[in-house]
């Protein structure tokens, strides 16, 4: 939960300059610290200071059996044990003890040219709080399945207030006691986002939104597929609003498609951008060649925008398929069809459990994809420590050797040094002895 602690004299200008763009300011998580010693001075008082800061942000849990709470002029965060998807930040004009309760409501929504998410809440308080309420920041959280079931555009969600006097639903955005309304589409705590209103009056609220347009052809939510229906085994569509240079995660739940999440970083802000994943029975009919390697799954991924800076595809592969094919996790890759050939994307193994191994692949756009295995080529091991000699391809016969390998001309063997001199001496000695005889 993002919040900021600001000195009280700075708080008066919190909406000016850089403070105005902080999430904490926009969503009412700003607290005025009246005693600067809490955060500026060290010493024994630091323990008391930390305790006081904790009181600002630690939510108070209310239940049906214990709805009483002490409030003051500083904001107090409240959650309800019975309804987990509601939180309140309350600020009273004076110190008081009040009771607060929240319950689901079944009051039907009025026709605003919109549809209901099917989520209504009634917040009841004791009279002393209702007459001394400075502000109440209401958050009502929603899930992706609720949006899908109601077929609503997420960015169009808003809170409506039920006027009990006129017994009619009203748009709180135009009422004088409403300080702001909106929707935050960031995933948080298992929810896809929350609708909020900063008000000074409680009561019954409901969530409404604009129905997604119905498109012709084999498409939905702004994406149209050209894949023949007979080749689609399973399809799942998710819708989010993209933010410039900020990753937005689309979560998918169908086991058949093999995709867990797709995180997209857009080039600019865009609302209600749909992403559709199609698991195919065979190679896509939109490509002209089968994917390389051993194919685990053929896919189409479609997006309602081309203004994509980068995307990360998080997918999973069954461990039984990897081991049964005598593969390693490093062999698994994601391949993308670029219109003329398959490109193998940068793919990383992230983790594994008893059933699946999980991977990430990076891309800068969407088209047809395939999860494949590309084993590294095996090489014959070379023994070390043994001398080897090259042998001729064939050994010639004796006759072949005469023609292929001509004999060298014999060279005379040189005589031993001084032999001629010794022989001459012996001959002279023999002549001399003969004459003496």
Please, could you describe this protein's structure?
The chain is α+β, with helices and mostly antiparallel strands. It has helices at residues 8-11, 23-26, 37-40, 45-57, 127-130, 144-150, 319-324, 398-404, 419-436, and strands spanning 4-7, 30-33, 60-62, 68-71, 76-80, 86-92, 96-104, 115-125, 133-142, 158-163, 168-170, 178-184, 193-199, 204-209, 219-220, 223-224, 232-242, 247-251, 259-266, 270-280, 294-303, 308-318, 332-337, 342-344, 347-352, 356-363, 368-373. The chain folds into three domains: 1-55, no CATH class; 59-209, Sandwich (Chondroitinase Ac, Chain A, domain 3); 219-373, Chondroitinase Ac, Chain A, domain 3 (Sandwich), CATH 2.60.220. It has nine helices and 27 strands. Strand 10 (158-163) and strand 11 (168-170) form a beta hairpin.
Structural class: alpha+beta
Low-confidence stretches are 1-16, 214-221, 382-415
The helix count comes to 9
Give the distance, in angstroms, between the N- and C-terminal Cα atoms.
Answer: 137 Å
Strand order of the largest sheet: 3-5-6-9-13-12
Strand percentage, roughly? 35-45%
Given the C-alpha coordinates, what overall shape results?
Answer: elongated
In the CATH scheme, what's the topology name of the largest domain? Chondroitinase Ac, Chain A, domain 3
Computed over alpha carbons, the radius of gyration is 41 Å
Compute the number of strand runs.
27
What number of domains?
3
């Amino acid at each position: 939960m993002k919040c900021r602690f600001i000195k009280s004299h700075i708080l008066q200008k919190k909406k000016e300059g850089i403070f105005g763009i902080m999430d904490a300011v926009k969503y009412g998580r700003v607290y005025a610290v009246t005693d600067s010693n809490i955060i500026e001075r060290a010493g024994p008082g630091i323990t008391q200071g930390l305790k006081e800061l904790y009181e600002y942000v630690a939510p108070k849990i209310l239940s049906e059996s214990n709805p009483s709470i002490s409030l003051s002029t500083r904001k107090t965060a409240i959650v309800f044990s019975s309804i987990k998807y509601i939180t309140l930040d309350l600020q009273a004009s004076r110190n008081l003890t009040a009771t607060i309760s929240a319950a689901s409501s079944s009051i039907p929504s009025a026709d605003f040219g919109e549809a209901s998410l099917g989520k209504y809440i009634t917040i009841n308080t004791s009279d002393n709080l209702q007459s001394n309420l400075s502000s109440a920041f209401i958050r009502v959280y929603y899930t992706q399945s609720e949006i899908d079931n109601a077929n609503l555009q997420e960015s169009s969600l808003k809170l409506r207030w039920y006027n009990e006097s006129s017994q009619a639903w009203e748009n709180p955005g135009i009422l004088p006691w409403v300080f702001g309304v909106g929707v935050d589409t960031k995933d948080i705590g298992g929810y896809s986002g929350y609708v909020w209103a900063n008000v000074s009056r409680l009561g019954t609220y409901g969530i409404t939104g604009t129905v997604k347009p119905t498109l012709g052809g084999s498409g939905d939510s702004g994406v149209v597929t050209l894949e023949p229906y007979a080749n689609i085994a399973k399809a799942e569509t998710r819708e989010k609003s993209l933010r410039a240079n900020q990753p937005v995660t689309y979560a998918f739940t169908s086991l058949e498609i093999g995709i867990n999440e797709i995180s997209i970083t857009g080039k600019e802000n865009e609302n209600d951008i749909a992403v559709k994943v199609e698991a195919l029975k065979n190679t896509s009919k939109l490509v002209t060649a089968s994917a390389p390697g051993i194919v685990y799954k053929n896919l189409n991924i479609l997006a309602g925008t081309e203004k994509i800076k980068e995307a990360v595809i998080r997918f999973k592969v069954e461990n039984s398929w990897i081991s049964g094919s005598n593969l390693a996790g490093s062999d698994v890759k994601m391949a993308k069809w670029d219109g003329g050939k398959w490109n193998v994307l940068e793919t990383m193994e992230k983790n594994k459990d008893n059933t699946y191994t999980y991977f990430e692949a990076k891309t800068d756009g969407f088209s047809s994809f395939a999860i494949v295995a590309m084993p590294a080529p095996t090489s014959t091991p070379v023994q070390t420590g043994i001398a080897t000699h090259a042998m001729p391809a064939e050994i010639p016969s004796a006759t072949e050797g005469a023609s292929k390998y001509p004999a060298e001309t014999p060279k005379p063997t040189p005589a031993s040094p001084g032999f001629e001199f010794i022989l001459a001496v012996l001959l002279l000695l023999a002549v001399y002895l003969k004459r003496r005889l």
